[in-house]
Write a structure and sequence with these properties.
Structural class of chain B: alpha+beta
Number of helices of chain A: 7
Strand order of the largest sheet of chain B: 2-4-5-9-8
Shape of chain A: globular
Strand content of chain B: 35-45%
Strand order of the largest sheet of chain A: 2-1-3-5-4
Number of strands of chain A: 5
Number of strands of chain B: 11
Number of helices of chain B: 4
Strand content of chain A: 5-15%
Radius of gyration of chain B: 23 Å
Largest sheet of chain A: 5 strands, mixed
Order of helices and strands of chain B: HEHEEEEEEEEEEHH
Largest sheet of chain B: 5 strands, mixed, barrel
Distance between the termini of chain A: 65 Å
Radius of gyration of chain A: 20 Å
Oligomer: heterodimer
Chain lengths: 237, 201
């Protein structure tokens, strides 16, 4: 066989999986980013164990760049059940510093402008009835064993949006041999491919989305954000 | 001395007010008189990349015109969260699948209620007078009491089953699958109508 052809074949074999994986990671959204590296969550679903698994999964993939802890003083992430139109199993609503806050357009002690690019809090909603129906379907087909797997998978996905990650946007028919490497697929893809927690490439998308971003530092923690009477409370320009 | 004390009192009063409410505090109660506008993104049960599965999963496929858009309802199940949905009445022009109706209701996630607004990133909220080809699933859970006599549907696939007819071209949801967009976005409605015609025969 022609040596050039062999090289080309070898190169194709080597690069093909990488290209496939690259194609099957989700991109990031032009969404707000968190300035707090510890987010406090409140749960109105009663599924704290599943939510905890999902949050721990994210912490692992993003090297603890953001930590999650139960609400003490704040409600940064609100998990709740909701009645959603059929076919929609989850919903993430980001609220930014544009919403309901006098911090609007002031800089914090790190110099970050408290505008629409910065999270105020996020609502993560789940439809319990539809998730239960999905569990029945995929359990009967042998894809999932427990409802917890379904709940954890959707929670990981919605948390992905709160971490600024977009949807994978692929139909199951396009996921060859379940090669998807992101929890940001439709529920159909995530459950059939047993993707319940954030994956390595989700961590990569997070890293891209937060490149150059400054989290709270000791000086920021020591001083209240948006102290509009303080030296950092300058209007954004 | 009195003057100094007045200043101290004034500072004590003003200082907490000047600390911006930069972070939502535990137990926060929303003030309905304050503007609350937020975008949202949904997660769908299934991603549709072609018409046959979208058609197959739908109870009703119609061409219809929006006649009335109602103010949003809040279906929240938590006092910390809000779920706005909007009921939309449509007049049916043509039926490709399902019962022949003259009027139907479609519920969309999002909308406006007082000073609260929820804006979808992946699809458009339907407006009065607009024309659509819609792939729909009957949705008794979303039935509004005010529209008790009208069967209520949801859009199949969240954002997939909604094709707007604008100046004789098709406009798909921004989040519609790339394969659907490649085939139908900006194309003449005849392309979709022909595909539907083939499926309904």
């Amino acid at each position: 066989m022609n040596r050039g052809l062999i090289h080309l074949l070898t190169l194709t074999i080597l690069l093909a999986p990488a290209a496939l994986n690259a194609q099957q990671c989700a991109n990031y959204l032009q969404w707000p980013r968190w300035v707090w590296s510890t987010l406090q969550w409140v749960d109105d679903t009663g599924e704290a164990t599943d939510l905890g698994d999902a949050m721990y999964g994210w912490q692992e993939q993003i090297d603890n760049a953001i930590l999650f802890e139960p609400s003490q003083d704040f409600e940064d992430i609100i998990f709740s059940y909701a009645t959603l139109p059929t076919g929609i199993v989850g919903n993430t609503i980001p609220h930014t510093q544009m919403d309901n806050t006098p911090c609007y357009q002031k800089t914090d002690y790190c110099g970050i402008c408290m505008n629409a690019a910065v999270f105020y809090y996020a609502e993560l909603q789940f439809d319990a009835v539809q998730l239960s129906n999905q569990y029945d379907t995929y359990h009967a087909e042998g894809y999932v064993q427990t409802f917890d797997q379904v709940m954890t998978s959707v929670a990981s996905h919605e948390l992905g949006h709160a971490m600024r990650e977009g949807d994978l946007g692929l139909a199951f028919s396009q996921i060859q041999n379940c090669s998807a490497t992101s929890v940001m697929g439709s529920l159909d893809v995530d459950l059939r491919c047993q993707l319940y927690l954030a994956q390595v490439c989700d961590g990569g998308t997070f890293a891209s989305a937060y490149t150059g971003w400054v989290y709270d530092t000791p000086i920021c923690l020591a001083n209240p954000y948006c102290d509009i009477g303080g030296e950092s409370g300058q209007s954004c320009t | 001395m009195y003057k100094a004390m007045n200043w101290v009192v004034l500072v004590l009063i003003i200082t907490p007010l000047s600390q911006g409410q930069q972070r939502r505090e535990a137990g926060h109660v929303d003030d309905p008189s304050v503007s609350d506008v937020a975008h949202f993104t949904v997660t769908v049960a299934r991603e549709y990349d072609s018409i046959p599965p979208l058609y197959s999963d739908s109870d009703l496929v119609v061409q219809a015109t929006v006649s009335t858009v109602f103010p949003a309802r809040d279906l929240s199940l938590s006092n910390r969260s809000h779920t706005l949905v909007t009921d939309i009445l449509l007049n049916v022009k043509r039926t490709f699948k399902g019962p022949t109706l003259t009027e139907l209701a479609v519920v969309q996630l999002g909308g406006t209620l007082g000073k609260m607004q929820r804006i979808p990133d992946q699809f458009r909220m339907m407006q009065n007078g607009e024309q659509y080809v819609l792939f729909l699933k009957q949705d008794p859970r979303m039935q509004s009491v005010a529209l008790a006599g009208t069967v209520t549907y949801s859009v199949t696939g969240g954002y997939a089953g909604i094709f707007q007819l604008v100046n004789n071209t098709l406009q798909l949801s921004p989040a519609a699958h790339i394969n659907l967009r490649d085939r139908y976005q900006g194309k003449l409605p005849d392309v979709l109508l022909a595909d539907l015609g083939n499926l309904s025969h």
